[in-house]
Write a structure and sequence with these properties.
It is built from five helices and five strands, in the order ααββαβαββα. By secondary structure, the chain is α+β, with helices and mostly antiparallel strands. Strands 2-1-3-4-5 form a five-stranded mixed β-sheet.
């Protein structure tokens, strides 16, 4: 068993499938201001993949990240439990040069719906990626459990 398999319980073929969906979503990002395209593919516990791309707005605040687009699509369809997300980002018209980790707001949205075993895959390609769990990217997070009596 490899180090990766010990940290997460997800087959490499599923990781690559999620990355492929995320790469495809980059192509339809709406980024007239930053020209930085991000795609995401979110795996629900139901086995369905929900995709998202970043969508910018001239007033910036209404801009929505790819990760949140995928989460909001899934939640709007009644899905609230997830296993993993793949994220790929880079300049418009170019292959990703680096990994594109989720922003703080997206990490907080993940915290709302995901358990400690949730897997975050940041990729440059189907063969070059890093994998972390939610507690690794958002330690000591504030979530729904903190509001329970």
């Amino acid at each position: 068993m490899s180090f990766l398999e010990k940290r997460i319980s997800m087959e490499e073929s599923k990781i690559k499938e999620l990355i492929k969906y995320a790469l495809d979503m980059r192509k339809i990002s709406y980024t007239p201001y930053s020209h930085f395209n991000v795609g995401a593919a979110l795996l629900g516990k139901n086995g369905k993949i929900y995709t998202g791309c970043n969508i910018e707005n001239a007033s910036f605040t209404p801009t929505n990240c790819a990760e949140r687009t995928a989460f909001f699509k899934a939640v709007s369809e009644g899905v609230k439990e997830f296993d993993a997300i793949a994220i790929v980002g880079g300049p418009d018209g170019a292959e990703p040069e680096g990994f594109c980790p989720p922003c703080g707001v997206c990490r907080q949205v993940m915290s709302e719906f995901c358990t400690d075993s949730f897997v975050i895959i940041c990729a440059k390609s189907e063969d070059e990626y890093v994998v972390n769990t939610l507690p690794e990217v958002l330690p000591d997070r504030f979530g729904p459990k903190d509001l329970l009596d």
